[in-house]
Write a structure and sequence with these properties.
CATH superfamily of the largest domain: Transferase(Phosphotransferase) domain 1
Radius of gyration: 31 Å
Shape: elongated
Oligomer: single chain
Number of helices: 16
CATH class of the largest domain: Mainly Alpha
Number of domains: 3
CATH topology of the largest domain: Transferase(Phosphotransferase), domain 1
Strand order of the largest sheet: 1-2-3-5-4
Helix content: 40-55%
Mean pLDDT: 79
CATH architecture of the largest domain: Orthogonal Bundle
Structural class: alpha+beta
Low-confidence stretches: 283-306, 348-352
Number of strands: 8
Length: 447
C-alpha cells in the first residue's frame, strides 16, 4: 500500500491496535493488525499529535524518510506518515526477541549490551539522526542477541499539540537538563540519556530524581552515588565514563559517542597497565621483616651475652635441622621422580591439545554466550579444517563480548600452526578497526 494513503484517513481505519508494548517519552509502541493485509505489525505512534500543516510535520516526514533509506540500515521501517489529525506514526515488521533489560543478569552481558547501544547510536549520529528521547524502550535485543535501536520517532515537544496526557514518569529521567521546548536536540543530549541508561543497566537505579517529582532539587552531580557503590560487580571503567556522561553541564560531557568509546578503551588500557606493574614477592617481603633474620644485637638494640650451655643446645639444634634437610631433599627427589613419570605417561596418551588447554579458561568464562563458546570449540579443535576456523574467527571479530579480544590475542600467541596464528593476528586488527580504534589496529598490524 502507498504511504500517502495513510495521510488521507485516520490511522484507526488502517490499524487495529492491540497491546501497548513499550513507551518512550514521545511515543508508544503497539502490537497491531494491518486491516488491509490482515498481517501483524508493530506500530509506533506519537503520543501527542503535531500541529497540522506545520513545519514540524515536514520535519517528522523528512526524519522518517532519512531513517527508512539509511545505509547501513538503522531501523526497518516498512512505512510511515502523518494522519489528518496530525498523528505521526511508523510501522515496523514483527519483532523477534525481548526488551532490552531481559536476561541481562551477569556483568559481562550488561557490558556487551551497553557497548552495543553505543555503536547503534553512533551509526545513527553518523547519518544525521539524533534521537532526543532515548531510554530503555528505545532498544531491543534480537533473538540472536544483537542489540538494535527500534524507536525512530525522535523528540517533537515544541510542535506537539498537548492533550493533557503525561509521558511515563521513568522516561523523564533520561531528559537532559538543557532539553527544553525551544532547544533543538543535540548529540550531547543523547550522550546524557546513554549515561542514564548505563547507570540503570549496572545499578538498577537512576542517578537523578524525576524532574516532575516535588522533591526534585535540580541536577547536582556531587549528590549522585557512583555506580560502583550503587551496584554489584560493576566494571572498573563504569564510574569514570558514566559520571561524565551525566554531567548537568553539557559542555563537560562527552560531545559524541566515539569519544565515549575511545575513553572506555583508554580507561581499560590504564587498568591493564596498572595491574602489570612489578611488585615485591610476598614471601621475600615477609622474610625481610622476619625477626629470625635480625641479629640479636640489632633486634634488641643492645649486646646480649651468650651462655656456653646455650651454645651447645644450639649446636644440637643445628644438627637436627641438617638431618631434617637431608630427609626433605630425599622426599623432594622422590616426588620429582613421580611427577616426571606421570608426565611421561600422560604425554603418550594426551587428553587434549596444548592449544585447547591454553584456552580452557576462555571457554569456561563465556557463560551464556553459546555462539562465542562454539567458535572457541571449533578454533581449538585440531582436526577442524583451517577454513572452518577462519569462519569462526570472523564471528569473533563481529562479537561485542569483552572476552573476544583476549581470546584472539591468546589464540595468536598459542596457535598450534603458523596459518592459524596469522589468521588470529589479522582478526585482532579487523576487530580493532570494527570497534573504531584505527590507531590500535595499526599498532597491532605492525606487531
Amino acid at each position: 500500500m502507498e504511504k500517502s494513503a495513510y495521510l488521507e484517513k485516520p490511522l484507526s481505519e488502517f490499524f487495529t491496535l492491540d497491546n501497548k508494548i513499550l513507551s518512550t517519552r514521545s511515543a508508544d509502541l503497539y502490537s497491531s493488525i494491518d486491516r488491509v493485509s490482515s498481517e501483524p505489525a508493530y506500530l509506533w505512534v506519537l503520543r501527542h499529535p503535531l500541529e497540522v500543516n506545520s513545519d514540524f510535520v515536514g520535519r517528522f516526514l523528512i526524519r522518517m524518510h532519512k531513517i527508512e533509506h539509511a545505509n547501513p540500515l538503522l531501523i526497518p521501517i516498512k512505512y510511515h506518515g502523518v494522519d489528518p489529525s496530525g498523528v505521526g506514526f511508523a510501522v515496523l515488521p514483527p519483532l523477534s526477541g525481548n526488551p532490552f533489560t531481559s536476561s541481562a543478569r551477569d556483568t559481562v552481558e550488561k557490558e556487551r549490551r551497553f557497548m552495543s547501544c553505543l555503536r547503534a547510536v553512533e551509526r545513527a549520529h553518523k547519518q544525521g539522526v539524533v534521537f532526543g528521547d532515548l531510554c530503555l524502550a528505545s532498544f531491543w535485543v534480537e533473538r540472536d542477541g544483537e542489540v538494535s535501536v527500534i524507536c525512530p520517532m525522535g523528540s517533537f515537544d515544541a510542535g506537539a499539540v498537548s492533550d493533557g496526557a503525561m509521558p511515563p514518569s521513568e522516561t523523564l529521567l533520561y531528559l537532559a537538563p538543557e532539553q527544553g521546548l525551544d532547544d533543538e536536540v543535540a548529540i550531547y543530549s543523547d550522550v546524557f540519556a546513554l549515561g542514564v541508561l548505563g547507570y540503570f543497566l549496572f545499578t538498577e537505579g537512576y542517578p537523578y530524581k524525576n524532574p516532575s517529582d516535588p522533591a526534585f532539587e535540580g541536577f547536582d552531580l556531587s549528590k549522585v552515588v557512583p555506580p560502583s557503590q550503587a551496584g554489584h560487580n560493576v566494571p572498573p571503567w563504569v564510574d569514570e565514563i558514566i559520571m561524565r556522561c551525566i554531567e548537568p553541564d553539557y559542555s563537560s560531557r562527552f560531545q559524541s559517542v566515539p569519544e565515549i568509546m575511545a575513553e572506555i578503551s583508554e580507561v581499560r588500557r590504564r587498568i591493564v597497565a596498572s595491574s602489570e606493574l612489578p611488585v615485591k614477592p610476598k614471601k621475600q617481603a615477609i622474610l625481610d621483616q622476619s625477626p629470625a633474620l635480625v641479629s640479636k644485637e640489632s633486634y634488641t638494640g643492645r649486646p646480649v651475652s651468650v651462655d656456653p650451655k646455650e651454645g651447645k643446645a644450639e649446636k644440637r639444634t643445628l644438627g637436627s635441622m641438617s638431618s631434617l634437610r637431608i630427609i626433605a631433599i630425599g622426599i623432594a627427589v622422590f616426588a620429582v621422580s613421580l611427577i616426571a613419570a606421570w608426565r611421561f605417561v600422560s604425554a603418550r596418551a594426551p587428553i587434549r591439545s596444548e592449544f585447547q588447554a591454553d584456552l580452557s579458561l576462555h571457554r569456561a568464562a563465556v557463560g551464556e554466550n553459546e555462539e562465542l563458546g562454539r567458535a572457541i570449540d571449533v578454533i581449538t579443535e585440531k582436526r577442524m579444517a583451517l577454513s572452518e576456523k577462519s569462519k569462526k574467527l570472523e564471528e569473533i571479530v563481529a562479537s561485542d563480548d569483552p572476552l573476544a579480544h583476549d581470546f584472539l590475542v591468546r589464540s595468536a600467541i598459542a596457535a598450534d600452526s603458523q596459518e592459524l596464528r596469522e589468521l588470529s593476528e589479522k582478526s585482532i586488527v579487523d576487530r580493532a578497526r570494527r570497534l573504531g580504534l584505527p590507531r590500535s589496529a595499526e599498532q597491532v598490524r605492525q606487531w
